[in-house]
Design goal:
Layout (H helix, E strand, L loop, with lengths): L1 E6 L2 E6 L3 H6 L9 H6 L13 E6 L6 E5 L6 E2 L6 E4 L6 E2 L4 E9 L1
Length: 109
């Protein structure tokens, strides 16, 4: 038994055994995987949220904690010993070697 499908003003007649291929190509738009959600543009997600965040960075020299924006456009210096904590790139700021981020303190903007 064949089934008829209307696709952009073209009627497609397929045997029942080939219908599973059409279902396999279907994509669940309401429940994307976390990987798909991460790769999509920030404005095209189901819930719009920015890619940027604030993070607490600990200085390797004096062990003081400084809050740094993830996409900082200027060089961020430590308040205590004025060592460079991160340097700007085209997108996210690059942390210098030795300084590390407290992952528990990540906060979305």
């Amino acid at each position: 038994m064949a089934s008829a499908w209307l696709c952009q003003n073209i009627i497609i007649c397929l045997p029942r055994q080939y219908l599973w291929t059409l279902y396999a190509l279907a994509k669940d738009l309401l429940h994307p995987t976390p990987e798909e959600e991460r790769r999509t543009h920030k404005k095209k997600r189901l819930v719009q949220c920015p890619n940027s965040y604030f993070m607490d960075v600990k200085c390797p020299g004096c062990y003081k904690i400084t809050t740094v924006f993830s996409h900082a456009q200027t060089v961020v210096l430590c308040v205590g010993c004025s060592t460079v904590l991160c340097q700007p790139t085209g997108g996210k700021a690059r942390l210098t070697e030795g300084s590390f981020v407290f992952l528990l303190k990540l906060r979305q903007v």
